[in-house]
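Exercise 7. Predict the structure of Transposase from Schleiferilactobacillus harbinensis DSM 16991.
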Amino acid sequence: MNLNVGIDVAKAKLDYCGMDSAKHIIFQDEVVNAPAGTEKIIKLILDWADSRDDAEKVVIGMEATSVYNIHPTLYFEQSSALQALDTEIVTLNPKMTHRYSQLFDDDKTDTLDAFHIADFLRMGRYQVPVTRDEKHIALQRLTRERYFVVSQITDCKNHFLNNLYFRLNTLEAELPTSVFGNTMMTVLSGEKYTLDEIAQMPLETLTQDLNQLSHGRFGEPEEVAKALKKAIRSSYRLNKTVADSVDQILAMYIREIRMFQKQLKELDKSIAALCAVIDGAKSLNSMPGLGPVYSAGLLAEIGQIERFPDEASLASYAGLSWRRSQSGGSERQLTPRTHNGDQYLRYYLVEAANSIRVHDPVFAKYYDKKYGEVPKYQHRRACIMTARKLVRVIYKLLSDHELYVPAKVV
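Solution. The predicted structure, encoded as tokens:
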């Protein structure tokens, strides 16, 4: 007789339901999402095992719910009392349990959700993953926050450009350098002088100031100075009230961009230090164009490669798979890609594939082939297909602990 414990995870509480193989409910209630609550569930499981001579296996399952399921999952896995039993800890895809619950005409409550999770476990249609070790969990925390910080920088830059256009609508067309360089952001933030002061400043003085601020890194500071003065003169004029407001917003976004960039450097330093002690980092870094950032993101989301029985399961986990559709004697040739899976892993695979194809002729040839197969969305489709090809390479490198050896282009 098996015991299937379904747990509906929320931020503050855990709704649980213990169901045996005959679909009898053994226990059902809710506890706080804290060690004390998890210990209560463990005690109920142990009491059931002690009371049964035919107790065989215990399956504890809960949905992947943001970060809320991580603590109880680790707590169950590290319980010596549960380890003495034949216990499986299962993390479920919420889409799978949701579809299963829709088969029944029931209300939607946390109590019923726990019941349906237990019933789903009873059916046995789940996979038991290899537990992520602490190093991969730590790396995942860092790389996901890095992903968030990069997104914030992108958003800030977009808002900055919109407001910059409002203030100097001809600047980007005139300026021979990026507006996001440290020197240009200092100039545009008004920290040293206003835009009106720049317009009236002698060209030689502005050139010297730009050269000083950039520590001589501008190849042609005089050209930048000319472009800046020209843009200020040729752009639409704003009245002082509006101009002051826009200048304040520009200065605000410059401070935010610099803050996030500083955080990015700190994260990159921590990620690099952690990657140095994780298996597989050397294998992935051996691929041309992959780089330390993408390598870290891939390792963090994949975890131990032993979690996946083959490369197809890894691709499915990333949402880079296409379901087969066959009926009778016909089979559908065009099938949509699944939209399940780890969005972070999929992001890193697609971005890594787009970078690798620039450096590796084999991937470049494959990308070009897929690019030419369709009349629209060529780049997006080619990147996704190249990412699927990359999955096979990554799986072999991590499984065999090998370094990448570029294949010869035929």
